[in-house]
Amino acid sequence: MIKRSFFALSRPRLTYDLLEPDPLEPQTIPVPDLITLFLTESIDSKRPALIKKGDPVEKGQKLVLYEDSTAYAVSPVAGTIKMIDSYSDDFGAIATCIIIAHDPVRTSQAQSMEMSEDISFAAAHLLKLPGAPPFDILADENVNITTIVITGADTDLLTTTSQYVTTSHIRDLEQGAKILKQITNVSRICITLPESLNGNAPTASLQVLQTGTVYPDTLPAMIMKDHLDQILPAGKTPEEMGVCFIRAEAVVSLARAFAAKAYIFEKHVTLVDKNASRHRIKAVIGTPLSNIFSQLDIQVNDQDRIIIGGPMRGYATFTVHHPVTPDMDTVVVQDQRIIPKISDTPCVNCGKCVQICPADIQVNLLVRFLETNQYEEATDKYDLDACIECGLCTYVCTSQIALGQYIRLGKHELRKLRADV
Amino acid sequence: MREMISMIVVLTLLASVSGGLLAAVKSGTELRIEEQVLKFQKAPAIESLFSDVTNDPLKERFTLDTGDRTLQIFPGKMKDGSRAVAFETSGKGGYGGDIGLMVGINVDSDQLVGARVTTHAETPGLGSRAKDDLTFVSQFNSRPLDANLALKADNGSIDAISGATVTSRAVTRAAIQAQELYSQLKPEILKQIQ
Amino acid sequence: MAQSLAKEFTKGLWAEIPPFRLVLGLCPTLAVTKSVENGIGMGLATTFVLVFSNLLISLLRNVIPPKVRIACYIVIIATFVTIVELVMQAYTYPLFLTLGIFIPLIVVNCIVLGRAEAFASKNTPVLAVADGLGIGIGFTLSLASLGAVREIIGAGTITIWGGNPVFAVGDWYHPFSFMVEAPGAFVALGLMLAGMNLIGKK
Amino acid sequence: MELFELAIGSIFINNIILAQFLGICPFIGTSKKMETAVGMAMAVVFVMVMAGMITWSVDTFLLKALNVEYLRTLSFILVIASLVQFVEMFLKKSIPGLYAGLGIFLPLITTNCAVMGTCLLNIGNEYDFTSALVSAFSYALGFGLALVLFAGVRERVNLGRVPGPLQDTSIGLITAGIIALTFTSFRGMV
Amino acid sequence: MNNTKLTVSHAPFWHDGDNLFKKNLNFMLALLPAAIFGILQFGAPALGVMALSLSCAMLWELVINLVSKKPATIGDLEAAVIGLLFGMMLPAITPWWLIVVGTFVAVFVGKMIFGGIGSSPFNPTLLGMAVLMMSWKMFFDFDTAYVDYEFAFTALAPLAAVKTQGAAAADLFTLGDLFMGREVGAVGATFGLGLIIGGIYLILRGYARWELSVSFIAGILITAFLFHAASPQNYAGPLFHLLSGYTLLGAFFLITESASSPVNRIPMLLYGFLGGVVIILMRNIGAYADGTILAILLVNVVSPLLDNIRPNALGRGMNNA
Ligand SMILES: Cc1cc2nc3c(=O)[nH]c(=O)nc-3n(C[C@@H](O)[C@@H](O)[C@H](O)COP(=O)(O)O)c2cc1C
Ligand SMILES: Cc1cc2nc3c(=O)[nH]c(=O)nc-3n(C[C@H](O)[C@H](O)[C@H](O)COP(=O)(O)O)c2cc1C
Ligand SMILES: Cc1cc2nc3c(=O)[nH]c(=O)nc-3n(C[C@H](O)[C@H](O)[C@H](O)COP(=O)(O)O)c2cc1C
Ligand SMILES: Cc1cc2nc3c(=O)[nH]c(=O)nc-3n(C[C@H](O)[C@H](O)[C@H](O)CO)c2cc1C
Ligand code: SF4
Ligand code: SF4
Ligand code: SF4
Ligand code: SF4
Ligand code: FES
Prior knowledge:
The structure holds five protein chains of five kinds. By secondary structure, chain B is of the alpha+beta class. Chain B has one domain (46-193). Helices cover 43% and strands 21% of the residues of chain B. Chain B has a five-stranded antiparallel sheet. In chain C, strands 1-2 form a two-stranded antiparallel ribbon. In chain C, β1 and β2 form a beta hairpin. In chain C, α4 crosses α6. Chain D is mostly helical. Chain D has one domain (2-184). Chain D is 76% helix and 0% strand. Chain D has helices at 2-13, 24-29, 34-66, 72-94, 96-102, 106-110, 113-124, 129-159, 169-183. Chains in contact: A-D, A-E, B-C, B-D, B-E, C-D, C-E, D-E. Chains A and E meet through β14, β15, α8 and α11 of A and loops of E. One iron/sulfur cluster (SF4) binds next to α12 of chain A. Riboflavin is lined by residues 130, 133-134, 137, 140-141, 157, 160, 245-246, 288-294 of chain E.
């Protein structure tokens, strides 16, 4: 944990972790016996499912629940479906989890794919590439994207996944960007990179946006403000404003998938252990974290905490078997002794959150409205929708209020309220 | 139309009945009210100031016009034969608003007889000592008319009540106002008490 | 009849007791309750106006044209207020001095006009008088109890009538005079209201 | 200078609500939301100035001239009530925008001690016309100032975790009391 | 398979480690120099007053917690700070019952009825103080409080002396005397140097905002200077005002109370400045000798309004355009 400095007259500045000059080579985790995949669709017992327990699956097979489903997963192994079950996410939305027993005996030659340079093909088949490329949004005819920003600079502290992927796979990245340009017809493609990594930057086709090194300089809203001269209106997504952010890793995977004419499954993850040492690993999507921990000899005990994502924007998972997912750049293991306390003390108006908020939100007042469930007022008067969810207010709050959680919950409730109208 | 007439009739009737009733109550209570005002507001201060007069200052009161208001003047005949008058002034800016002060002035010697606080809204036990405790106002006794009646803190000659500078200042303002009013009205007062 | 009479009378004593339940008439409530005596005096003066204006308005309720009813009520109320004012000046002058401007202001006391409009104009004279009496006595009791709390804490005495305390706490007590000052009035009323809420909830 | 002192005195030191205890019902009743408070404050300024001028004239040219001062309470309340009615009708017809803003507050003002009280204070203090006008305007400003300050604090208080029995009116009164306490700062300044 | 029971609480996953306990502990630490000086100067009674006040405030909060069946909140030490500050603002000779009543008013009326920590729009200590002064002003008369003491310096409360005897009385005190606490006054408010050291410590450590203290002091100095320049024989100088009475305690420990002050920079500057101006107005043309207490309470009232002066949030109002 980063402590407040003794002299704290001015607001704290948290700097991003930069890639080591001589980066670690990733450690490859063997393909495990059990693979867990998530589907963003809930099980409907009344409808006949296309897949069921016991079904054999092939490596690279697209798994879909029903005839008309748009949500899909792609199996990284050949094997048998061992279980299909419901699970609920952070805010109670129901999704489905599929566990596949890996059959190492079956020769696992990935199904070869007929690649098509077409965005609707990409949306229908390549969404689950490592890095989770947002092809569905790019394919949406209602969304008019004019700029694509590849995030080569990581968007949370501790993690260096994007920086690593960018600098170590420059060829693939450039190739991927080219394909991206072709299939999307978006002419302006940029890439964010921390200033110090400039030497390794792709040169040819990409416009490089040199980001600052102070958190949250690399978050989408900040990139738009600082580099694209575009203020993200409160409550809008970058995509609605014509800017699409895509992970560097997704671009690299895209190039590789096209080159191999096959699906790609290896995901890069930065793992920070309890001693704050960083591990760089490469694991097949669906690998349970427990496998990774045992591989690396990381002991996870009761009451410890596993954070998916970085310390500022991540979420905690309840199980060590949480799988590697296409969008998982970072895993932080936190020892129970250093987990910060949350209190239900009211805000004491110390103003630290206001001082640090990059979106200039009056968090001290906002939280009072959120605590009293006044979401509309919170939005109209105190800019709930302008929050970029950087987590800084939560980090500094003297009263140790879970401000970020209030904010995310508030946005969630607000969406429900607005949807009801 | 009928409605209109009834409206006017009812209102007019009501207003006139009310007016008549009030006029009757007014005339029935008028004298008593004046007595009460004198008895409770002015009499104690005047009696305390003019403890040794031979006449009844309340009965012999008269009014003078100062230009912007009328002033009730209470004349007193002192035992030593000299004549005095008392009238009320008000000092601005007390802790709880203006302070009323009854000031007695000996017309023959042009000296203050003394001063008594009549009305105030000062803090009990603090500013109210200006009225309840005569030590402060007794500083005005027998002062010549041209004395500097400001507080010592304002380069005058009066000691403030401890803890109640503001009250004291308001009282001295009233006393100074009395000095000015008296010098302005003296000819008329002399005329009246001949 | 007797039952509804009793009901109209007693509702003013708890269910609708002003100013606790009807948050109206706050100015006199706060301004004059430095002592029990002042509270009672103000309360009785208001009761007098309430009862007689209620009576008269109820008697005239069929005569008064609806369009000018408010004007008529105001004339009636103002008449009784002026009578109270004159009589108090003549007979209880020191009390009149302490209550000051709040006697003529009974005329704008929301309670009085409120009862006229809401009750007296729709009910028989007997009920209207019961209503006025109930609300008036409730108001008086409220003012007296607020006055009691403020006076005993803020001055260490209880004065019921005539300016002489019937009870004094003793010389050791330094009165907590915040309670008899203006801010203390608000705080005392606020805390009493909270107390009533607490009782009411149980 | 006198008028300036009168104005400062009436706004701060003798604040109509916090020092004179007048107009407390609307003070408590319309302060839960800042918008309401601002609307009420504007309506009061409007009515108080008009009422102050008219009642002064009625008193000077009618009541005093005819020697029927005992009709003061009666005539003042009638003047204020009809003034409010008239203003309401006038605004409704000619300035509907303003009417929409002030409309709901106007009837409240008839039974507002502050308006009547200001008129009576003006007479009691034997002010001339200009002073009466300045005093009415300043008292009204003082009313608005206190109301707006109170509304700001009250909105904040209501977002806090006030214990059940104290919520709303109860804590509102206590807050008002403390604001009255802070206004004693101005004592003795003029 | 292992079934480790993980902690699944939500963010913060990282925290700067700051909390109310630390903040309040630092507050008390910063008050210590002035408090210790008070004990040295006024003896055991000063210690008694502060100790009783501190413990009473905590006890009252505990009692209120218990009666209202809420979890005990004294662990955040806010009650302790209220109590300590309250004690430091009293004369050494203060009757015990006054402290008992005063801390109750501060904690109950000033804090708990609004919902406890952070919820009160007023500074609880000052509220308790103001209510007591309104009731028992005679116990706050520093001139009579210390009649039994022998001091090696002018045994007069500087501000009261100036109020009653005029500005000339300011010459009875050298600025050095005031700075080093050679004056009579509240047990924790006389030692100017100690208060300044404590205040700077708090500001550097980020527990008090410089904007508030600096603008408050600027308000005092500028206003007092204008008065003094206009009429030196009637009004004492700016430094005299800054170093006497509760001024420094107010500048670093009272105006900086967070729940009752604004959080944005411009409002903070206005707020502090306004407080300073009002204090000097009260001292020079108002009814009070000091005025710090009421003036800060008065600006507390203005604080919510001032907080409306704030930057537009990122992207605010753009989606309607
Ligand atoms: C809540 C409470 C308040 C008391 N207040 C006083 C008081 O104010 N004065 C007093 O003399 N005794 C008071 N007593 C009673 C005794 O403690 C004490 O005063 C007793 O009379 C001895 O004090 P003395 O020697 O000064 O008379 C109080 C008791 C309680 C429980
Ligand atoms: C509750 C309270 C009531 C006060 N009442 C008065 C008062 O009635 N008259 C007055 O002159 N000052 C009053 N003051 C103001 C001061 O006591 C005093 O006038 C001023 O501070 C100067 O005090 P000094 O004369 O002791 O130096 C009051 C102050 C307080 C706190
Ligand atoms: C709540 C409370 C209030 C008290 N109020 C007073 C008081 O106002 N005056 C007083 O003299 N004693 C009061 N006492 C008690 C006295 O402090 C006690 O009698 C004291 O020891 C004797 O004071 P004395 O020497 O001034 O008579 C109070 C005690 C309590 C608990
Ligand atoms: C509500 C209230 C607030 C007061 N505030 C102060 C204050 O802040 N400083 C002060 O020295 N005296 C204050 N006093 C006391 C009084 O004004 C006077 O100045 C001193 O006690 C005399 O030295 C206050 C009194 C009351 C009633
Ligand atoms: S490992 Fe824990 S304590 Fe160490 S720096 Fe990271 S978060 Fe802080
Ligand atoms: S506080 Fe909430 S939104 Fe902010 S980083 Fe943490 S989990 Fe994410
Ligand atoms: S998470 Fe907090 S600090 Fe970050 S933008 Fe949102 S409100 Fe501001
Ligand atoms: S940091 Fe926490 S306690 Fe401080 S103002 Fe923000 S929400 Fe309130
Ligand atoms: S009693 Fe004064 S406004 Fe209601």
